Amino acid sequence: MNILKPQNYVILGSLFWWFSLYIYVPVLPLYSKDLGASLQFIGIIIGSYALGQILFRIPIGYFSDKLKSRKLFSVLSGIISFLGSAYLFISNNPDDVLIGRTITGVAAAGWVAISVYYSSFFPRNERFKSSTIILSSNMLSVFIGTFLSGYISDLISIKACFLLSMVTAIISSILFFISKEKPFDAKTQFSTIQFINLLKNKLLICLCLIGILIQFITFSINFSYFPIYLNQLSFSDSIVGNVVAFYTLASFIGTLLSPKLIKKFGLWKIFIFSSIVIGSTTLITPYFENLALLISLRIIGGIGGGVIFSSCMSSIVRGFEENYQASAMGIFQAVYAIGMFLGPVISGIIGSRINLESVFIFSAFISLLIITVCLFIRSEELAK
What we know:
The protein is built from 16 helices and no strands. The chain is mainly α. The radius of gyration is 19 Å and the shape is globular.
């Protein structure tokens, strides 16, 4: 790999950036619980990560297209991640954790610019490849971060996770800053009217709905209440981090498989089959206590989640003109962040008023709604 290529600085920056956002995630619910947060408030803390993304992803997509610069917003994303991690580092009560996690959610909104920034270095007929590479870097980095999280928390403390997040966030900003942005195609111009028309695109609407549902499940189960469930079974922080990491690794595998699966079976069938896999594995999880079996269920569900999510992203970078890709991606990522917020919050209410098992049952039901969305909309673009 030639490290001097601009896209390689972007992919390395993305690796460090995602690491900074997820190095503490598996143990954050446990840390919040130790500080006195209830199940419901833990859901609000985890869900707060989505608020900044809901509010800022569409504006970031819009202005990165209008200003013809994805690099600027990529650099800012690393800086804001540093600020959020710094606030978490000095936190000593659940309210502080809520504020810090909300700031890191604003940083995560920059994924709009970063993902399209990387894809801009590839010709349009290779956009599936580029989206697979950048999303794979995401999954790989999240896997490493979540895998190390529990060990660092057990051996040192979760504060060390926050400190490491601060360091890697700054490294990501430096890498984005020294990259060289590829000029936009001068033949096409950005139009606000065309941006508004994106909101009416059938394929984008369908992908947004599916994105909401898959992120609802991921952030409700994998990053919120599955760690709590493992904690109730008396597993250590390192074990919790490892199991969450295995889910992320499986999602990475699903991301790599998705282009071939789409080519062979079509997007619509892939969405339906994967949602069945996710729903069934989520439904039966709280009825088992064996660690090996729980890891196996997370791996199977993770592959399904990776296939669905990567298929959504690759459909966007392939299906829209270059001058509107960041805008389309911004809309998609802002809307799916609604699921990231609602998942932990609603599940927290359900878990507090009923029991933890009911959270898994409800999330399994949500996965079946993906099938309903596909059957209801069934646009020509999706059926291809």
